[in-house]
Amino acid sequence: MPQGKESPHIYSEWAKKYNSDILHLEVLGTHIVVLNSAKVATELLDKRSKVYSGRVQSVMMFELTGFDRDWGLFDYGDKWKKHLQVHYRHFGPKALQEYHPRMMKGVRTLLRLLHESPEAYVPHLRLMTGSTIISIVYGKEVQSADDQYIKLAEDTIKIFSTIGTPGSFLVDSIPVLKYLPSWFPGAGFKRQAEQWKKTVDAAYELPFNEVKAALRRGDSSPSITRSLLEGLKEGEDTREMEDVIMNVSGMAYPTASDTMIITLTSFILAMLLYPDVQRTVQV
């Protein structure tokens, strides 16, 4: 099973070798389908999403490390719909217009940092995107990349990437192994999962609970999470809706940060490759 940064290249070579953009692999009883082109991915995952919208159920990910709250991995159903409705209502373009001043503040900070140390542009971009997301979602002002919220979110992304690699953990192929006690020989994955779960739970719960506590005290800063909590209606299952809000808010950083960084670094590369266009933009 290909792993690491070379895996996309290996899959691409296999697609050419077998003359197919759809590959099927079986690893220790786990069936894996690899889509090797945007055309095929769009056809199956977009146009035929009602047929192919099911999500893989990883024991290590969902049962042992706490990613069962990652609503982007929910199967289609009422629970997924409820999360999606909250997401669209408060994370859509119109809803985010309210937070445009915070975005501009992040941009100005980024420009200052780039002027001071342009060679460190990637860390600067990561800090700007992370601090802007945290500010909008939780109302907290982030001063450095060592901020607890950012570190928890980044660690959670790394954990997800590790677990998400097919074939990484035997328990996903032999689910009964999840019942082994953590002290049992060969159950190191259980001990690792226990440590990872603490990080994942903290990444979702800590910022949410701090907003909730500040709201009770009356000194909370404007944020999406605060708006969602204030919008809870009488008669709703408060505990259930708070979990939905926590899940939706907690997914903002992992889903947005890398996308924003990739977009910005691609823009920088384009400006370096085409300085004439850069001059036109500056004018």
From TrEMBL:
GO terms for molecular function: heme binding; iron ion binding; monooxygenase activity; oxidoreductase activity, acting on paired donors, with incorporation or reduction of molecular oxygen. Pfam families: p450. InterPro entries: Cyt_P450 (IPR001128), Cyt_P450_sf (IPR036396), Cytochrome_P450_fung (IPR050364). One of its GO terms (cellular component) is membrane. It comes from Phanerochaete carnosa (strain HHB-10118-sp) (White-rot fungus). Belongs to the cytochrome P450 family. This is Cytochrome P450. The lineage of its organism: Eukaryota, Fungi, Dikarya, Basidiomycota, Agaricomycotina. It is found in: Membrane. Its main location: membrane. Its cofactor is heme. It is a single-pass membrane protein. Keywords: Heme, Iron, Membrane, Metal-binding, Monooxygenase, Oxidoreductase, Transmembrane, Transmembrane helix.
